[in-house]
Amino acid sequence: MQFSSIKGFKDILPSEALTWQRLQEEARRIFRYSGFQEMMPPLLEMTELFSRSIGEETDIVSKEMYTFTDSKGRSMSLRPEATASLVRAYIQHRLYEQNPIQKLFTIGPMFRHERPQKGRFRQFHQIDAEIFGDPGPRSDLEIIVLGMSLIEAVGLTGLSLQINSLGCPKCRSGFRNELRGYLLGRKEELCADCRRRAETNPLRVFDCKVETCKTVVSGAPSILDFIDKDCRIHFQALQEDLQVLGVSFTVNHMLVRGLDYYNRTTFEIQTNRLGAQNAVLGGGRYDGLSKQLGGPDHPAIGFALGMERLVALLEEQAQPETHSPDIFIVGLGALAEKKVLQWVYELRRQGIWVEMDYSSKGLKAQMKRADRMGASRVLIVGEDEIGSGKAVLRNMNTKTQDEVSLENLLQNLRKVIV
Ligand code: HAM
Fold first, then answer.
1. 302 and 409: one domain?
2. Are 302 and 336 part of one and the same domain?
3. Which pLDDT tens digit goes with each residue over 133-185?
4. Measured in angstroms, how far is the CA atom of residue 5 from the centroid of ligand 1?
5. Residue 149 lies in a domain
6. How far is the CA of 282 from the centre of ligand 1 (A)?
7. What distances in angstroms separate CA 178 from CA 174, 185, 202, 219, 220, one per listed residue?
């Protein structure tokens, strides 16, 4: 029997791995100079952490989590996102005591049992960044610009920023009542789930993918007509700061995002090149979550970027990146091979990617292998060369050759390669 990977769980193949690495390197570089520290929470948490933070009525918690009961009867889930775990860790390890404003990031796999399609997987990866401790709109600005900088740094273009404000729990309750009334007035057009949601958690109707529900929602009242003065000032200040930095954005009052913990600012960076899965990055403010999970009443804001989606867009935009040896050393004959072996390990220790052939084949076969690997240079060493102390170094790109001295070979090679 031959095994295949599970539906929705994808191998990241060597041909894609370089783009993944570059994305992570850029993220770590940008996070470092923006004052974010990396942490790595576990992949498994108590189910209740997610149901209490993301919300029982959300698609993520009600339908999509990989949940099981362990031998002690406790319900555990593979994390569907990272924010809840980071807040749990922030509270558990009292990270706020080290610094009143904590900036954290994490990179890793998340799990959601969704229907797989283009840009949507059951195991996917996020780059997630959060700022804890600052209630003001300048942190909203910082987190949004951070996400945009990361996308720009890897060279992705053609994306748009959408922002919204969900107000605070106080102003949202007025909106919720209005929305409930509107939805119940059009109850017949809603799917069974949304009829229930209209009563229990009407904002979640915005997440529904059913066409008739989408039509109903497109005529729904706007949250922006309900937010109070403080929430309005906050949202206005963010928009002014975005303009100061020359960041274009669209205000989209439908952007409620599919998680219950948000308040005030929500945002997404979207593309129109991934079909229905248009969000490359999404986030927002969640000022009440730390308190709700038993921690201090500290505000927070963050985002998560979907790595598969970003990589797919990058690959569509440019040739996949390749990686090839700096030099291939052809050793001909037992004596030369032994010498080559020493040089190979010495050069690798010096950070030069060097390859040799272990099969003692002839010159033609070894040259073919070097060519197939895309080696930039090939050094050919036989017994004659060992005797004369000189060998030919072939530049595979320009097809020219030079003679190099085997005495001080490592220094000579370093000069041409670095
Ligand atoms: P989210 O919108 O659920 O937010 O996910 C963020 C990003 O993860 C999405 O924009 C998308 O790029 C990617 N993503 C989500 N689901 C999938 C999937 N099934 N397959 C591929 N990519 C996917 C959150 O997760 C929040 N925790 C973001 C946040 C951080 N809010 C505050 N801080």
1. no
2. no
3. 999 999 999 999 999 999 999 988 889 999 999 999 999 999 999 999 999 99
4. 23
5. yes
6. 6
7. 6, 11, 10, 13, 9
